[in-house]
Amino acid sequence: MPAPTLHPDLESILVTEAQILNRVQELGRRLKEIYGNEEFTVISIMNGAILFTADLLRQVDNAIRLDCIRTTSYGSTTESHGTPKVIHGLTLDVTGRHVLIVDDILDTGKTLSLIAGMVRGMKPASVRVCVLLDKKGRRQVPFEADLVGFEIPDRFVVGYGLDFAERYRNLPSIGVLKPERQKA
Ligand code: IMP
Ligand code: MG
User: Fold this and answer.
1) CA distance 133 to 107
2) How does residue 184 score in pLDDT terms, banded at 50, 70 and 90?
């Protein structure tokens, strides 16, 4: 892996590319322990979870059905505002299926409690939630994920799918934006 260089808009790196890769492999092994050889349906929350989902799913050889959901976004701020809404829902039927919801980060908990509640209403066989990052200290509604990549402090982070105003999703590691870059 190439020597990590700090992107000029980042103040620091919180999780390196190598740490992500290693943890994603561990999470893949965890999924195998949980699901064995059973089929399951992954619901990935766009856009943030796209990179994590792509890497995680390649760690398991199960039959997987993949669907994506889109929720309203932050816009160009670093603060969650109001109640999230689903603006593009499921295409697959999940009734009687094992469902794994995948998101980039668990912050206030509003997005995942909305989506988990919606999925549970569809009478699946089981529902689990996997997030790459967990900002435990920020919860506004009680919500715990079944699988967590990394617990991180209350800092606004970008990279590996996470954005600020739709930018920085392509950075391979997860870092803290410089304060002067946290303006749209
Ligand atoms: P929640 O509904 O407050 O838990 O927020 C979940 C969504 O907010 C995540 O799926 C992210 O898209 C976004 N989010 C929360 N914290 C951050 C962050 O530090 N950087 C980038 N996006 C974030
Ligand atoms: Mg998101």
Assistant:
1) 9
2) low
